[in-house]
Design a protein that fits this description.
The protein is an alpha/beta fold. The strands form 3 sheets. The protein has an 8-stranded parallel sheet with strand order 4-11-10-9-8-7-6-5. A two-stranded antiparallel sheet has the order 1-12. Helix 5 packs parallel to helix 17. It starts with 8 loop residues before the first helix and ends with a strand. The mean pLDDT is 94. It binds flavin mononucleotide.
């Protein structure tokens, strides 16, 4: 199978599976506990049908949206994800390059493998910086100042990861950073020699968002221990309110679900919230963001930008979320499998197919701009 044979999410997933050592594929593909929430995230879109209007004159389609002050040429953007150079040696450079080509936003994770400064300088498109809250408040301040100085457009604090999810596939394979693979995990790397050749012949693995601040080199601190030892489990609304004030710009919380929490986010001055369950990788059994979107939009949709994240695989999923009142949609695996499959051309193909699906879907729905998508065009079964 080759990139040109990939026509949808499932094809990219299949190609990524062919190319990646299985512990790495399973790190991307896997989720928490029984992976119920991960499966539900995509299935929830199937319980909602689109009701098109015809004969509307749909020759020109404008799918741009403005979210948290950022104008995006398409309503779908790339959520921040960790460790991208493990998936393909181009890593975040491929994601950012593809996002820039399509005029959309990309996120850089705290656990990213290319520096936020390099990405900001090289790619001219809105950039989010995903942040974790550390016990050391001075460190939080330094890291935020660094992001501000680099010109990051949106600060995104992840709040659904106060402790790591129980990802049993990773436990079975011994997947951790630095690698502590089980014997069978190690064997899987031997089956994918091209991945290994690329890994050793390209720039060595680093975590540049953290390396200047946290001693992680030489296996001194694993990512697991970074979460348990350095992040602040007592983080609360007052802490975040201080951060929002300090940032003094577009600030959103990622991983909020309840209306009560979105109201608090508004009170402390956030400009956006990402309704997300981390792609089912944290609290298994938690509700899917699409199932929950209407409740949040009805309560506070006019007071804050709501972004729908988790489970998105199709252009019609994006259209359904926008119709319910999301300002934009984001996702992880929809571009990570293509990244793993083929680097930047892979991410470009994924974004291109999504853009085509959104455009075709809008035409067939009888909508020429995203603000024409409404609940009138939706029915739940
Ligand atoms: C491999 C992988 C790594 C991720 N790393 C991060 C991260 O570092 N920080 C973060 O806030 N979310 C992270 N996420 C969650 C994504 O930002 C996003 O919420 C999730 O992928 C959405 O679900 P989807 O994959 O079904 O689209 C990660 C997700 C995956 C699949």
């Amino acid at each position: 199978m080759r990139l040109k044979h990939c026509h949808n999410f499932h094809d990219f997933r299949k190609l990524a599976k062919q190319r990646l050592p299985s512990p790495i594929f399973n790190y991307i593909d896997g989720a928490a506990d029984d992976e119920l929430t991960c499966r539900r995230n995509s299935r929830s879109f199937e319980e909602c049908d689109l009701v098109p209007n015809v004969l509307k004159g749909v020759s020109h389609i404008d799918m741009s949206v403005t979210v948290m002050g950022q104008k995006l040429q398409m309503p779908l953007f790339c959520s921040p994800t960790a460790l991208q150079r493990l998936f393909h040696h181009e890593g975040e450079r491929a994601t950012a390059g593809a996002a820039a080509k399509f005029g959309t936003m990309f996120g850089v994770s705290s656990l990213g493998t290319v520096s936020l400064e390099e990405l900001r300088k090289t790619y001219n498109t809105p950039q989010v910086y995903q942040f974790y809250f550390h016990k050391d408040r001075a460190l939080n301040q330094v890291m935020m100042e660094r992001a501000k100085a680099a010109g990051v457009d949106v600060m995104m604090l992840t709040v659904d990861s106060i402790t790591g999810g129980n990802r049993e596939r990773d436990l079975r394979n011994g997947f951790s950073i630095p690698f502590r693979l089980t014997l069978s995990g190690m064997l899987q790397f031997a089956f994918k020699p091209m991945w290994g050749i690329n890994y050793v012949t390209h720039e060595s693995f680093k975590l540049p968002q953290l390396d200047d601040h946290v001693e992680m080199s030489g296996g001194a601190l694993s990512i697991g221990r970074y979460f348990t030892e350095m992040l602040e489990p007592s983080m609360n609304w007052d802490d975040v309110a201080e951060m929002v004030k300090l940032w003094d710009g577009q600030f959103c919380l990622k991983g909020v679900m309840s209306v009560e929490d979105v109201k608090k986010a508004i009170d402390i001055g956030c400009t956006g919230v990402v309704l997300s369950n981390h792609g089912g990788r944290q609290l298994d059994g938690s509700r899917s963001p699409f199932d929950h979107l209407a409740e949040v939009v009805d309560a506070v949709g006019d007071k804050i930008d709501i972004i729908l994240d988790s489970g998105v695989q199709r252009g019609t999923h994006v259209l359904k979320a926008l119709s319910l009142g999301a300002k934009a949609v984001s996702g992880g695996r929809f571009y990570l499998y293509p990244l793993a499959a083929a680097g930047q051309p892979g991410v470009e193909r994924a974004l291109g197919l999504m853009r085509d699906e959104i455009e075709r879907g809008m035409r067939l729905m009888g909508c020429t701009s995203t603000d024409q998508l409404s609940r009138g065009n939706l029915r739940f079964r």
